[in-house]
Amino acid sequence: MTTPDVNEGIINQGTISGQSIAVGRGARAVTTIEAAARTLEDGGHADVAQRLNELKTEMLAQRATIADFDETLEALELLAAGLAEPEPNRLTIRSLLDGLSSSLRSVGGVAEAVAALKVAVGVLL
Question: Residue 5: is its pLDDT beyond 70?
């Protein structure tokens, strides 16, 4: 008995369009962070936007070494959405930053990216 081939991608014979498309095992489309970064840039907080994107990039690059990756990424998305608010809730922002810092402290470049984001956010708040 043979098993059928498993397609973990997309077979397309037409057009695919979307704001974000994630394909394959463990793929995840991250739009909340990008949208928040654009809002922050438009509001004159380009440094916070840059640090937010850098942290996301580091996290995605080191996904395999981050315990509870999905929960950690969700916390970053919540942080990004909170920062993009006209009047961010300082307690929520600080709590999320502290949680990310604690969860990611042992993951080299990611820990550094969290620290840089904390500094940038400190100026915003």
Answer: no
For residues 104 and 110, the answer to whether their CB atoms sit within 8 Å is yes
Grouping H, G, I as helix, E, B as strand and the rest as coil, residue 65 is: helix
Helix axes 46-61, 32-42, angle to 10 degrees: 160
Residue 26 placed within a domain: no
Question: Ramachandran region of residue 68, left (φ > 0), alpha (ψ -120 to 50) or beta?
Answer: left
At 22 the pLDDT is 60
| Percent of the chain residues topping a pLDDT of 90 | 70
Confidence of residue 48 (pLDDT cuts 50, 70, 90): very high
Asked if residue 57 is part of any domain, the answer here is: yes
- For 93, the domain range is 32-124
Q: How far apart are CA 74 and CA 30, in angstroms?
A: 10
